[in-house]
Amino acid sequence: MWRQYRKIEPNELCIIAIDTAQGGGDYTAMQVLSATKLDVPIVYHSQLATGEFLPTLHRFLNALSDIAGVKPIVAIERNNGGLLHSDRLNGLNLQQKYTLFKMPNTGVVQVQIEGGSRYGWDTNAQTRPNMVADIRIAIQQQLIKIYDPMTYGEMLSFIVKNGKPQAERNAHDDLIMSLAICWQIYQMSPKKELTFSHQQESVSIHDKEENEILDKYGFY
């Protein structure tokens, strides 16, 4: 369900994307891309419906913000009720410890809450081909360091059917698509925004043997 591959460090900016699911055989998939180190230290993958995952996601984002001292950027894919989930998550973000991504209709992607049009990422016939092509290049050229074997496995199962890149029959693409969203946000966002605008005031970070995030979830 949760897989963590290294420690989160102070002053590390993370971009988080969630590929949504309504339950059943589909998966809620979350990738945490470090915009600072260009690797993927944390992955979440479960058949839990995204709506049920939101309270845990909120607690995770708060803890991540506390450890890094930088507000993470989070984008929920709009499909499968994602826009509603984003609105709910925004309602939980009373302490403003994380930034909800907004995707404008045109122009440069804005990562500031006030800069976009609607919460979340829109995967559609226009955006999907570029998303898949860009993440494939990033993986092939080792622009991103990926530790998760299931993410690699999904990339290998991708085929092009009727001109549309997708997972082959009986395979899934949730992890790849969530990582593709992270990579799009990283590429399209002004690097100044990524470097400076999400700095928080200094926070007290618990140094309990490796800076644990949410003890009961096993993060550090």
What is the C-level CATH assignment?
Answer: Alpha Beta
How far is the N terminus from the C terminus? 16 Å
CATH overall fold name: Nucleotidyltransferase, domain 5
Spatial shape: globular
- Cα-atom radius of gyration: 16 Å
User: What's the order of the H and E elements?
Assistant: EEEEEHEHEEEHEHEEHH
Low-confidence stretches: 107-116, 196-214
Number of helices: 6
Please give the order of strands in the largest beta sheet: 1-5-3-2-6-7
- Whole-number mean pLDDT: 80
Keywords:
220 residues; alpha/beta; Nucleotidyltransferase, domain 5; 6-stranded mixed beta sheet; two-stranded parallel sheet; 6 helices
Report on this model:
This protein has 220 residues and is of the alpha/beta class. It has one domain: Nucleotidyltransferase, domain 5, CATH 3.30.420. It has six helices and twelve strands. It has helices at 50-68, 82-92, 127-140, 149-156, 174-188, 191-196, and strands at 2-4, 14-19, 28-34, 39-40, 42-46, 73-76, 99-100, 102-103, 118-119, 145-146, 158-161, 164-167. The strands form three sheets. It has a six-stranded mixed beta sheet with strand order 1-5-3-2-6-7, with helices on both faces. Strands 4-10 form a two-stranded parallel ribbon. A two-stranded antiparallel ribbon has the order 11-12. Strand 11 (158-161) and strand 12 form a beta hairpin. Helix 1 (50-68) crosses helix 2 and helix 3 packs across helix 5 (174-188). The longest helix is centred in the first third of the chain and has 19 residues, at 50-68. Residues 107-116 and 196-214 have low confidence and may be disordered.
